Amino acid sequence: MNTSTSQLVDNFGRKVTYVRMSITDRCDFRCVYCMDEEMTFMPRNQVLSLEEIVLILRAFCELGVEKVRITGGEPLVRRDVDWLFEQVGQLKQTTALKELTITTNGSQLTKYADSLVAAGVDRVNISLDSLNAQRFLELTRTGKLDTVLSGIDAAKQAGFKRIKLNAVIMKGRNDDEIVDLAQFAIDHDLDISYIEEMPLGQVTHQRHESFCSSDEVLAKLQKSFELHPSVTNTGGPSRYYQVAGTSSKIGFISPHSHNFCESCNRVRVTTEGRLLLCLGQEHSIDLRAIIREYPDDIERLKQAMIDSMDIKPEGHDFDIKEQPIIFRHMSVTGG
Ligand code: SAM
Ligand code: SF4
Description:
Structural class: alpha/beta
CATH class: Alpha Beta
CATH topology: TIM Barrel
Number of strands: 12
Shape: globular
CATH architecture: Alpha-Beta Barrel
Helix content: 25-40%
CATH superfamily: Aldolase class I
Number of helices: 11
Distance between the termini: 25 Å
Number of domains: 1
Strand order of the largest sheet: 7-8-9-6-5-4-3-2-1-10-11-12
Bound molecules: S-adenosylmethionine, iron/sulfur cluster
């Protein structure tokens, strides 16, 4: 039951309590499912400033948003990102904000893990698609596995409440590592989610050829582990299982095979300040235009957020056989 007092309620009675904010479209990796080899990034003046990001998040949290996830692109490559986290962390004292989280590729965590915890970041999601250094390099095109593994260690030392790995599984690329990745999570006392590839933006491969459903991943895992369905409900596309005899949970993020829209509690803000009401649709409003025209008027911004609830669609309609459905890359939308 959603007991929040959020003032953001859509036409289907769903309360918005969760905002995902992409703070940069840039990244030090070029993961094959996320980006093209050659990417053109947004000109800096189109990207929200850190101050604008804080203002938007303050407005959301004053309206009752309880959970914020900072993502990207790679959030930790943005300059002065530690200042941003300090500011957003302080919203826990003055607004409805209860939980601050980040999704990262882990490449900068040895540098930032301690300051993120100090700023009030509760949980971290770290992407890890392979435990083989050569393959990790192929999938990320630029990433070094060792650096990310050191980042995971640093996150463990820093004392986040929980660390979760994210793995996008692709047929013929890393589907033979499904069990090894889960074992790695268990051995390190972490959770792990397996993500179905989503058709966001044009990439080099044909997505339907690499598509691997959560049901296939689950079937492989059940041969090696005893999994008990968990009651955890995030209001999102995730289903969780507890691995018997361990502290680890295994999640499945399945936008294709399991429709999750009816309990949707979230919205996204893109790098250039577009409030997206649904990941799989284009319904949006331009928050940047409002704050650049009326920089000191947080009430106007809040009213626009409330009004936007009128256009939150009932659900997405992804189809993996069409390519691409949505021309935005995940790095712009924020995963
Ligand atoms: N750079 C950070 C990272 O990789 O964790 C944060 C941003 S990334 C866009 C967020 C998540 O989206 C990652 O776990 C990534 O694997 C996932 N992702 C990116 N493109 C995707 C796609 N087309 N389908 C499914 N997941 C995708
Ligand atoms: Fe960068 Fe994350 Fe996209 Fe990989 S998934 S290219 S790390 S933004």
